[in-house]
Amino acid sequence: MFESLSERLSGVFDKLTRQGALTEADVSAALREVRVALLEADVSLPVARDFIRQVQAKAAGQAVTRSVTPGQQVVKIVHDELVAMLAGDEGEIGALRIDSPPAPVLMVGLQGSGKTTTTAKLARRLKEKDCKKVLMASLDTRRPAAMEQLAVLGAQIGVDVLPIVPGETPVQIARRARQQAMLGGYDVYLLDTAGRLSIDDELMAEVAAVRDEVKPRETLLVVDGLTGQDAVHTAENFDRRIGVTGVVLTRMDGDGRGGAALSMRAVTGKPIKFVGLGEKMDALEEFHPERVAGRILG
Ligand code: GDP
Description:
Elements (H helix, E strand, L loop, with lengths): L2 H16 L5 H17 L4 H17 L8 H18 L15 E7 L5 H14 L5 E5 L5 H14 L2 E2 L8 H14 L4 E5 L8 H14 L3 E7 L4 H13 L4 E5 L8 H10 L3 E5 L7 E3 L2 H9 L1
Parallel strand pairs: 1-4, 1-5, 2-3, 2-4, 5-6, 6-7
Antiparallel strand pairs: 7-8
Helix pairs in contact: 1-2, 1-4, 2-3, 3-4, 4-10, 4-11, 5-6, 7-8, 9-10
The structure holds guanosine-5'-diphosphate.
């Protein structure tokens, strides 16, 4: 998922580590190349700039040019800063807060982002990995096909889906889902809200009404990772209007440049909790900043 960035950086660092001694000018030149590589990966300019500034300050503070292995030390600093950029202040990101059953989880996002697929993938994961009893409900009253899609996926993965009752509003469906979850002894219920092609007030008002009704433990925003900085803007917007607790980046199996993953935390302050790595139901991975930084730096 970060192939081209990873390649670019390994080129820069190979050169750096092969040189025995380094001058400050060598380090600066290398960091300029890192900055270009980040921008090419569609990391936003302020985030890339900040990143380089931090690395530069640490490199100066640790007097890397005077160390025995200056190249490796710069790589180590870049690695640590990458982790910090991906993880924010909390370090490794924990799992979902789905204690006190039945825990409502609100799935939000634009149409076509992979929201329904991700809802089902997450349900499957909670069932198989965490042994949770999971209920799913589609709140997309305007698109019967989306409701059907969730029902089909539910049958495929063996997760219960709230039966469709024509004519209900999203809030009414959410209420029925809560009741069903309580009566049926479910641990979690996932609410797949309606998406739109773009952010509009009507969509936001509808999602906000559902949020106020169920008071979700988690509100997960699903965004298309291929859209780079647009994904980050979408996240800012949803967070401002709805309040988001975490982000799921989909299509990270594609040839996206990775910028969304890299700037999401720094720009929005929200953790990426999962990444989607394909269309199949098992193609959902927890997001680990350490692992991702390791993957980027090879
Ligand atoms: P929604 O409109 O947001 O609910 O989007 P869907 O869940 O219907 O997904 C739209 C399309 O994206 C479907 O064809 C999915 O199979 C596909 N999709 C979803 N997540 C991923 C992913 O992580 N990787 C890939 N390659 N395709 C995905």
